[in-house]
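Reviewer 2 asked us to include a model.

Predict the structure of this chain.
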Amino acid sequence: MSNITSTLNTIKQRGEKALITFVTAGDPDLATSEKIVHALVEAGVDLIELGFPFSDPMADGPTIQLASERALAAGTTLRKVLAMIARVRQHSNVPIVLMGYYNPVFCYGVESFARDAAEAGVDGLLLVDLPPEEAEELHPALRQHGIDLITLLAPTTGADRSARLASAGEGFLYYVSMTGVTGTQQVDAAAITSSVHSLQQLSSVPVAVGFGVSSPDDARQVAEIADAVVVGSALVKLIAEFGATPHLLDEVKSFVRKLKMAIQSCP
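Predicted model (C-alpha cells):
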C-alpha cells in the first residue's frame, strides 16, 4: 500500500477527514516554498499537493496562474522542485503529490522523471491535462518506481467512465467539484453529494474533493461528504498577500489550523 493510501486510510479509520493543501513550488521563491511546506506540516496538513509551475496552466484561474508566473520568474524548474522535496524528506514523511501539466514531465523524460521523483521522495503525480487513457507511456514508469498516478474526475465525467476510473484509482481520487478553472467559484457541497458517495462505493481508495473550497466553512461542508478536502487557491492568495512580509508563515499556519479545526468538527 502506498504512503498516500496508507496515510489517508489511517485517518479514515480514526473516523476523521483528511486535509490536503496545494501550493505552487517556487512561489514566491524556492527557499520560501520549502519553509511553507514545513509550516503546512507543522499546522497539521495530512497531504501536500505541490504544483510545479508551467507557462500555460490551462486548468487554473488567475490566482494560481500568477503563482506560476512568480515561480518561473524566480527560476523554478522541475529539477529544482525535486531537489527541494528531497530536502523536505530529511525532516518529514508527509505524503507529497506533484501536481501540474504533462509538458514539463515529457521534456524531462518519462523514465528519468519517474526515477528522480521517486528518489526525491515524491509519492504521487497528478497531471491535469493527461487523461488516464493517454498515460500508457507514463504510467508503467511511475508504477515501477512506486509513484501513484492520481485520477481526476468531474461532474461531467460519465457514469461508465467514472466507474472504470474509480475502480482503478491509485492513492486517492480527486473529484473536481465544478466545471471551469480553479479559484473562480464556490463549492456547492449539496450538489455533489450523490456523485461523491457513488465514487466512494466504487473505489478502494479515498475520495478527495477540491476546487472552490476557500474557507473553513467550505471545508467543513465538503468534509461531511468526502474523505478528504483539498484547499488550493485560498492558500495561494494568502501567500501572494503575505509572501514579502515576515508574517507569511504565521498566516499560513493560522489559516491551515482553522481549516483543520473545521473539518475535525464533522461527525
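The beta strands are 18-24, 47-51, 96-100, 124-127, 148-149, 151-153, 173-176, 207-210, 228-231. The longest strand covers residues 18-24. We have added this to the supplementary material.
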